[in-house]
């Protein structure tokens, strides 16, 4: 337990749930982290990603290569950013203070919270529609349930209440329950997907028709569309590259977090993608048309046992990605914004309620608007990712003074709690990568090329500008003289300027 009498610790910046986690409480192994990622990677969005790629004209083999490249890129960024969480036991909302300052950190923390709550809202509503369709297939009278005096579906509202309640049940009682849930959910989804793939191979007497379709994208068009496809898949998880310390702070060693993420990200994704293509091939043979929506497949099979197993798996997959990928980071973000009013459980419930207030049923009928907004938010988070990496590895040299991350004065305070170098690097990078995203296609030459590599460009530019702004002949690199003091791991701070 931290010594709350320390004069450096400001109550506006400290809360027991965002305090450095003692090493004896960091008990996640690589199996735990791999299971968490399995539960997140196996979701409807990732399942349907291959559909979008093949619709563009890529072959099945090219789809696998694109997915592998995207997830390997994500793994590299997340592995590097996760190291600080594992080393120091702090979440993203605290780590970001080193680069942006205690007041400046509010900006990236608030952006990340908005992204997480919005993703939670949209994916929960998708899960609600899935549950509604499944219940209707099991009980035909379900579709006839309507609210009095209107045409609104009572069945859908009841499904939403069940889904939101399940999220609250899993998220209650902190990370211990979440960890236990993910240990079951991740492998379970993979097992069911594997069984469905075996069914598909039997139906198709092989890999199926989709694997025989040749690519229609060639030459320069292949490079441009391939880059855009890689960036699009990265966009699904770009926000998590920022806040991966929220999970890695619970992992017992750097080896565990590296192996866990390697198995959970690129390895699992490259296994899961051909499964989705195989299952869709089977729908062509069985129903005469490709079905990329797993809910649609269940409703067409007309088998109660399969509908129950498949439906429960879809719901578990949605819960798994939402709890670990959205509720946890958003809860930590809200904790850092309101440390004196919230604990982790209350923050989790707040995320769930805010997700409902986001009225996802109004957005869900306009998916292009949803993904355009999320694409913009992911582009905004790219320079933040680059700045975090540059700050920790190039400016701080992997050395932090944790006590000063919880105060408005000292090493990380900058100017009145704001560090201009991070703010300037973010603003300049956004001036480069946001206009191509916001302006209509074809507005200026090279626009498509910038959009295709916007995430990579944002990380490299943001990190490079931040490093350049923090170069100082007086800067020194301290030795890693860490010691445990009242739960805080303290080191001699780097004497870099508070730019």
What is the structure about, briefly put?
By secondary structure, this protein is mainly alpha-helical. It has 20 helices and 2 strands. The radius of gyration is 23 Å and the shape is globular.
Q: Order of strands in the sheet with the most strands?
A: 1-2
Radius of gyration: 23 Å
What class do helices, strands and sheet pairing give? mainly alpha
Number of helices: 20
Distance between the first and last residues' Cα: 33 Å
Task: Give an account of the 3D structure.
With 499 residues, the chain is mainly α. The chain has a single domain (23-490), classed as Hydantoin permease. It has helices at 30-41, 44-56, 60-88, 92-95, 97-100, 106-138, 154-171, 174-204, 219-237, 240-243, 245-248, 254-287, 294-301, 304-337, 344-357, 360-363, 367-395, 420-438, 447-452, 454-469; strands at 483-485, 488-490. A two-stranded antiparallel sheet has the order 1-2. The longest helix has 34 residues, at 254-287.
What order do the helices and strands come in, and which of them pair?
Layout: H1 30-41, H2 44-56, H3 60-88, H4 92-95, H5 97-100, H6 106-138, H7 154-171, H8 174-204, H9 219-237, H10 240-243, H11 245-248, H12 254-287, H13 294-301, H14 304-337, H15 344-357, H16 360-363, H17 367-395, H18 420-438, H19 447-452, H20 454-469, E1 483-485, E2 488-490
């Amino acid at each position: 337990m931290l010594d709350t009498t320390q004069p450096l610790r400001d109550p506006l910046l400290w809360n027991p749930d965002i305090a450095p986690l003692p090493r004896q409480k960091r008990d996640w192994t690589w199996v735990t982290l791999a299971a968490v990622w399995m539960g997140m990677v196996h979701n409807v969005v990732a399942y349907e990603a291959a559909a979008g790629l093949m619709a563009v004209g890529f072959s099945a083999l090219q789809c696998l290569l694109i997915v592998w490249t995207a997830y390997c890129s994500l793994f590299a960024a997340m592995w590097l950013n996760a190291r600080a969480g594992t080393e120091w036991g702090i979440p993203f909302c605290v780590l970001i203070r080193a680069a942006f300052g205690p007041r400046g950190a509010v900006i990236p923390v608030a952006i990340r919270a908005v992204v997480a709550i919005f993703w939670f809202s949209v994916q929960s509503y998708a899960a609600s529609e899935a549950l509604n369709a499944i219940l209707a297939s099991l009980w035909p009278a379900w579709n006839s349930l309507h609210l009095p005096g209107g045409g609104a579906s009572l069945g859908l509202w009841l499904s939403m209440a069940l889904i939101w309640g399940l999220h609250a049940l899993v998220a209650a009682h902190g990370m211990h329950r979440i960890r236990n849930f993910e240990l079951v959910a991740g492998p379970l989804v993979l097992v069911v997907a594997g069984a469905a793939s075996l069914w598909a191979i039997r139906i198709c007497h092989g890999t199926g028709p989709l694997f025989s379709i040749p690519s229609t994208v060639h030459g320069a068009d292949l490079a441009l569309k391939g880059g855009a496809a890689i960036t699009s898949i990265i966009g699904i998880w770009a926000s998590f590259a920022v806040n991966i310390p929220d999970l890695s702070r619970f992992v017992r060693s750097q080896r565990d977090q590296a192996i866990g993420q390697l198995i959970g990200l690129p390895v699992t994704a490259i296994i899961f993608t051909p499964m989705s293509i195989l299952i869709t091939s089977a729908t062509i043979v069985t129903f005469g048309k490709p079905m990329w929506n797993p809910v649609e497949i269940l409703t067409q099979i007309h088998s109660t046992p399969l509908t129950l197993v498949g439906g429960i798996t879809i719901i578990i997959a949605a819960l798994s990605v939402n709890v670990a990928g959205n509720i946890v980071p958003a809860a930590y973000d809200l904790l850092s914004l309101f440390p004196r009013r919230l604990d982790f459980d209350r923050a989790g419930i707040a995320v769930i309620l805010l997700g409902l207030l986001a009225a996802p049923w109004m957005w869900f009928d306009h998916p292009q608007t949803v993904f355009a907004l999320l694409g913009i938010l992911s582009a905004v988070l790219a320079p933040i990712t680059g700045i975090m990496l540059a700050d920790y590895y190039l400016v701080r040299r992997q050395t932090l003074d944790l006590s000063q991350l919880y105060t408005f004065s000292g090493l990380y305070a900058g100017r009145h709690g704001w560090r201009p170098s991070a703010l300037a690097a973010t603003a300049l990078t956004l001036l480069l990568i946001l206009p191509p995203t916001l302006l209509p296609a074809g507005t200026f030459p090279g626009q498509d090329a910038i959009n295709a590599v916007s995430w990579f460009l944002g990380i490299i530019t943001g990190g490079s500008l931040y490093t350049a702004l923090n170069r100082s002949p007086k800067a020194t690199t301290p030795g890693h003289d860490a010691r445990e003091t009242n739960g805080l791991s303290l080191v001699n701070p780097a004497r870099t300027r508070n730019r």
